[in-house]
Write a structure and sequence with these properties.
Layout: H1 10-17, H2 23-33, E1 43-45, E2 49-50, E3 60-61, E4 64-68, E5 73-79, H3 86-99, E6 115-121, E7 135-141, E8 147-158, H4 172-182, H5 196-205, H6 212-276, H7 281-288, H8 292-296
Parallel strand pairs: 5-6, 6-8
Antiparallel strand pairs: 1-4, 2-3, 4-5, 7-8
């Protein structure tokens, strides 16, 4: 049995980053992604469900939602399965912490606190598949590629692309990504992660420390993760197999068409020679099977 939890499960992710007792882990992780002038020292967890202004509006359920000491809003999402419109979903989610800042009353100067949407993805965007970049920081820019508005930031981490070894970890961000990606397969704390914050993270993630209820909840979450992973893997495998079969059938059909075309060209050449010998249409048809119209067109 593994020593540490799988952080890609709902339980594992929220155990590490979503509990008040361990919020120093979330603060440290967020600071590894934020620019120096946006670093936070304190945060408060907020409700992870947001509603529209009317009962018929769509709602949003976040994995983790919190507010920094200066009012900054953070949404942290773990996306296990590929979602074609995850970027659209991120933009939609960002509208909730923006709108909730609107002050009630007649006077409001529209000043907003910064909003950050962070996605930890266990998949790769199709449009970035050929790029080695695994960390994408996105802000609104103008036609000169200068930041037009720095209070709305999207950070996407494509975890399958993060392939650095322990010896290659150069930054604090690298260390966090290595921790998240390899945690469930580790049996001891790597030398490069022997820092106070990671030692706390490893203690938090140690399955042997869970009580009975936590152990059951984690096993249920792990089963769901494995089931979903198998469903996705099976769908991909079946799609690839259908593609292979279609490719084979298309290849066979192409070969049949090319073979048929070659045979027709041979018949036309034979018909030309017979026609040059002044044989009748009846004889040429009997020899080649061509119609009178095809023979006339030669």
């Amino acid at each position: 049995m593994p020593r540490y939890i799988n952080p890609f499960t709902d339980f594992g992710f929220k155990k590490l980053f979503g509990e008040e007792a361990h919020k120093t882990l979330l603060i440290d992780f967020l600071n590894a992604l934020l620019p120096a002038h946006r670093r936070i020292r304190e945060l408060q967890y907020t409700k992870n469900e947001a509603f529209g202004e009317t009962a018929t509006d769509r709602r949003a359920v976040f994995d983790i939602a919190c507010t920094g000491e200066n009012g900054e809003r953070f949404i942290v999402e773990l996306q296990k399965a590929k979602q074609n419109f995850f970027k659209d979903r991120s933009v939609f989610y960002a509208t909730f912490p923006i709108r909730e800042q609107a002050e009630r009353g007649d006077v409001w100067d529209f000043e907003l606190a910064a909003v950050y949407c962070i996605g930890i993805l266990d998949f790769v965007f199709d449009e970035d598949r050929d790029s080695p970049e695994y960390l994408h920081t996105v802000q609104l820019k103008n036609q000169h590629n200068r930041v037009f508005y720095d209070k709305l930031t999207f950070v996407y981490l494509e975890m399958p692309k993060f392939t650095k070894t322990e010896a290659e970890l150069a930054t604090h961000t690298d260390k966090w990504l290595y921790f998240i990606k390899h945690l469930s397969g580790l049996e001891a704390i790597p030398a490069v992660l022997q820092e106070t914050v990671f030692e706390q993270a490893f203690r938090t993630a140690e399955i042997a420390r869970f009580d009975a209820a936590e152990a059951r909840a984690y096993q249920a979450s792990l089963k769901y993760y494995r089931d979903m992973y198998n469903v996705v893997a099976t769908a991909i495998q079946e799609a690839e197999q259908r593609g292979i079969e279609q490719g084979i059938e298309q290849g066979r059909e192409k070969e049949r068409l090319e073979s048929s075309q070659r045979e027709r060209e041979k018949l036309l050449e034979v018909a030309r020679k017979l026609k040059a010998m002044n044989l009748s249409f009846v004889d040429i048809h009997a020899a080649t099977g061509l119609t009178d119209e095809e023979i006339t067109a030669l």
